[in-house]
Write a structure and sequence with these properties.
By secondary structure, the protein is an alpha+beta fold. It contains 2 helices and 4 strands. Strands 1-2-3-4 form a 4-stranded antiparallel β-sheet. A hairpin with a 4-residue loop joins strand 2 and strand 3. The longest helix has 39 residues.
Length: 106
């Protein structure tokens, strides 16, 4: 998968393995096993998305910037409910097909 990266973080002797996949400009898909060894797919903010969220958190008294914040918040919601959800579903379908092919799907 082009653009995929694997991360391994340990804390107190516990290692959590996960894969981060590209999704949209504001979000990435994260894939990891849970404690029951089931595959979990979710989304997290990308570095650019995180920066945009930080800018949204800055309070402003200017009406123009306030309206811009509202418009950006609405577009973020539309992105999560539209393209991000579609991409997440495509990754889920692809991973399920891989698990089926390897005989690991339940």
């Amino acid at each position: 998968m082009a653009g995929a990266s694997h991360r391994d973080h340990g804390a107190s002797g516990y290692t959590k393995r996960y894969v981060v996949l590209p999704a949209t400009a504001r979000y990435m898909i994260i894939v990891y096993p849970d404690k029951k060894n089931q595959v979990i797919l979710s989304y997290i903010p990308s570095p650019a998305g995180r920066s945009a969220m930080l800018l949204q958190a800055i309070p402003t008294q200017n009406a123009f910037f306030g309206m811009a914040k509202i418009a950006n918040t609405m577009s973020v919601k539309a992105e999560r409910e539209g393209p991000l959800e579609d991409i997440l579903q495509k990754y889920a379908d692809y991973l399920y097909a891989l698990l089926q092919a390897s005989g690991l799907a339940r």
